[in-house]
Structures are given as structure tokens and as C-alpha cells.
């Protein structure tokens, strides 16, 4: 709810913000997504993940979408692009903790035909061969 005295533009910016948290666990880059992954956020996500993937120790990418509230076609493009990069070098991209609304977007886009979905980050890490 918009509070009295709050700037409408600032309120929208806060509600539509996007944040990324990355952590490398041995050979897996864990990327936790928060907020709305739209065309404004897609470029920043692409750059951040690509930079982290340059590290020779990273073989797999784990996308934790628990905090992701929205994703448009730009987000789908970023995810598919990282999938192709990883696949070309023998790695895997796994998605976990997807909310029902974002899961529907993944399903409509056919992403789960090429990406593996796991319920929890800890389980996804185990399936990628990383002890948690």
C-alpha cells in the first residue's frame, strides 16, 4: 500500500526492483533472484552471470527463483542463453524453488523441456554433485 507522503515514482521503483545474489559453491554458481526479471533487469543479470561464468572453476549454474515474482521474455532469453553457454562446455543449468506464478511462465515458455527443476537449493546442489 502506498503511504501518505511517499513519492509515487519511488514506490514503483521499490515494488519493481530486482536483486541478484551470487555465491560459488565449488563448481556451482548459485544465483538467487529477487523481484521482477524484466527487460530492465535482464541486461544486468546477463552481465553478472557471464562474468562469474568466466571463472574456470564454475561448471554448473543453479538459479534459485524463490524470490522471483515476475519474469518476461527478456528473462527467458537470459536463462536460455546461459543454458546454451553451459551446455556447450558440458555444464548444466538447474532451476529450483520456483513460485507457482513464475513456474507457469517457465512452463508456457517450454523451459522445463530443457532445464531441470528441483524443489530446494540444497537438493539441487546434491544432484549437481556438491555436498551441502
Automatic annotation (TrEMBL):
KW Phosphoprotein (keyword) present: yes
Gene Ontology molecular functions: anti-sigma factor antagonist activity; antisigma factor binding
Key words, A-Z: Phosphoprotein, Sporulation
PROSITE patterns to which the protein is assigned, alphabetical: STAS (PS50801)
Biological process annotations from GO: sporulation resulting in formation of a cellular spore
Classification via Gene3D superfamilies: STAS domain
Recorded superkingdom: Bacteria
Residues of the STAS domain: 18-132
PANTHER family: ANTI-SIGMA FACTOR ANTAGONIST TM_1081-RELATED, ANTI-SIGMA FACTOR ANTAGONIST TM_1081-RELATED-RELATED
Family that this chain belongs to: Belongs to the anti-sigma-factor antagonist family.
Job description of the protein: In the phosphorylated form it could act as an anti-anti-sigma factor that counteracts SpoIIAB and thus releases sigma f from inhibition.
Name this polypeptide is given: Anti-sigma F factor antagonist
Provenance organism: Natribacillus halophilus
Amino acid at each position: 500500500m502506498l503511504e501518505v507522503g511517499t513519492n509515487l515514482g519511488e514506490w514503483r521503483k521499490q515494488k519493481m526492483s530486482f536483486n541478484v545474489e551470487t555465491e560459488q559453491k565449488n563448481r556451482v554458481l548459485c544465483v538467487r533472484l529477487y523481484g521482477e526479471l524484466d527487460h530492465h533487469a535482464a541486461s544486468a543479470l546477463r552481465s553478472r552471470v557471464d562474468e562469474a561464468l568466466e571463472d574456470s572453476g564454475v561448471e554448473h549454474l543453479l538459479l534459485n527463483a524463490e524470490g522471483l515474482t515476475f519474469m518476461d521474455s527478456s528473462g527467458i532469453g537470459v536463462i536460455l542463453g546461459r543454458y546454451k553457454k553451459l551446455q556447450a562446455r558440458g555444464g548444466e543449468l538447474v532451476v529450483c524453488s520456483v513460485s507457482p506464478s513464475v513456474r507457469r511462465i517457465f512452463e508456457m515458455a517450454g523451459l522445463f523441456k530443457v532445464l531441470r527443476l528441483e524443489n530446494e537449493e540444497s537438493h539441487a546442489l546434491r544432484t549437481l554433485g556438491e555436498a551441502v
